[in-house]
Specification:
Shape: elongated
Structural class: alpha/beta
Largest sheet: 5 strands, mixed
Strand order of the largest sheet: 3-7-6-4-5
Helix content: 10-25%
Length: 180
Amino acid sequence: MTDPVDDETLDRLGIDKGYVDYEGNRREAPPETLHEIVRLMEVDGDSPSHGVRVVRVGEHVAVPDATELRTEDGASVLLDGSLPPDLAAGYHELIDLTDGTSTRLIVSPGACYLPEDLFTWGWTSQLYALRSEGSWGHGDLADLRQLGRFTRYLGGGMNMINPLHAVAPVLPQQPSPYYP
């Protein structure tokens, strides 16, 4: 059994010790997993060294005084103990000026942008199952076009179908309506 990673290190790195599953139960990560995450972030427990830190836009984050922020647009700012409150989402770099180590800083918006009025629905289908009187026993692209028109007529906005690509990028290809 591995000794637990201290909470201060996990908090500083933004690593959660667990999660809440779909039934609302708290699930804790095994200590071995937490140790491996810290190791992969190349952190020795006291100071980040070529690691990654993920924060959200507008989050107050303390950093050492002798830290330079290099933003993804090329700007360079000497920090005074915390990240700028207006730091844009993106991939930036924190440089510790005392030892020269760098930490990748990922500033996340926290969620993907979705328009407030976005609402749509659609069908999920397998192309081969979209048979019509005009198809040869299994669906084809003409049937898919017909489903698209029908979906729009009913007010839907999408159709999700099985992939329309080769099974593998090599020959021979085995023909089957059940393969993508």
